[in-house]
């Protein structure tokens, strides 16, 4: 078993409750899609959520583990081959900074959703993939990580103007 390369998928909801994302990741369709892409382990940070994912893993299935909070999710992000995240800007930029492939899952239950605009803009620029809980399985099946553009943190200008646009500040 030890000779198999581990390819971990790390799922994070930050400090929020986003059961729809945890449920989606726990679904047979999503697990199947991840397996087909060659991922071996699934680690879910479930935040304040109440939905508990199933840990059952047999042969040919993902090894699943989960926890609520960790003082530093940076380690999990660093070790991951793929990150599936809620649309919080902290989680997004942390993942992009580590140069990890990222699927941002937008929480459609949030009424005031600046977050989805940020995620969609970064998806348009091909820094990440964007999904909803309903389309996550499809997104995993169809994604081609090779098509992603590395995010270069040094170039803050586009991001700054994006943030200014959200908050209605003039762009200098």
UniProtKB/TrEMBL annotation:
InterPro entries linked to this entry: Glyco_trans_28_C (IPR007235), UDP-GlcNAc_transferase (IPR052474)
Which biological process terms from the Gene Ontology are attached to this UniProt entry?
A: dolichol-linked oligosaccharide biosynthetic process
- Range of residues in the leader sequence: none
| Lineage: superkingdom | Eukaryota
The Gene Ontology CC terms held by the record are: UDP-N-acetylglucosamine transferase complex
Q: What is the name of the protein in this document?
A: Glycosyl transferase family 28 C-terminal domain-containing protein
| Molecular-function annotations in GO | hexosyltransferase activity
Where would I find the Glycosyl transferase family 28 C-terminal domain in this sequence? 8-153
Pfam families per the UniProt record, alphabetical: Glyco_tran_28_C (PF04101)
Source organism of the structure: Oryza barthii
């Amino acid at each position: 078993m030890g000779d198999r390369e581990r390819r971990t998928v790390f799922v994070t909801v930050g400090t929020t409750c986003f059961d729809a994302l945890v449920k989606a990741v726990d679904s047979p369709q999503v697990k199947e899609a991840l397996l087909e892409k060659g991922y071996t382990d699934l680690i879910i940070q479930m935040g304040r959520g109440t939905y508990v994912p199933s840990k059952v893993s047999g042969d040919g299935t993902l090894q699943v583990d989960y926890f609520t909070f960790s003082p530093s999710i940076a380690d999990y992000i660093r070790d991951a081959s793929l990150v599936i995240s809620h649309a919080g800007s902290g989680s997004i930029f942390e993942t992009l900074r580590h140069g990890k492939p990222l699927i941002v899952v937008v929480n459609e239950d949030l009424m005031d959703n600046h977050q989805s605009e940020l995620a969609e803009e970064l998806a348009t620029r091909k820094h990440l993939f964007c999904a909803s809980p309903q389309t996550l399985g499809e997104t995993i099946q169809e994604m081609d990580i090779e098509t992603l553009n590395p995010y270069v943190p040094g170039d803050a200008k586009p991001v700054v103007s994006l943030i200014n646009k959200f908050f209605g500040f003039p762009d200098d």
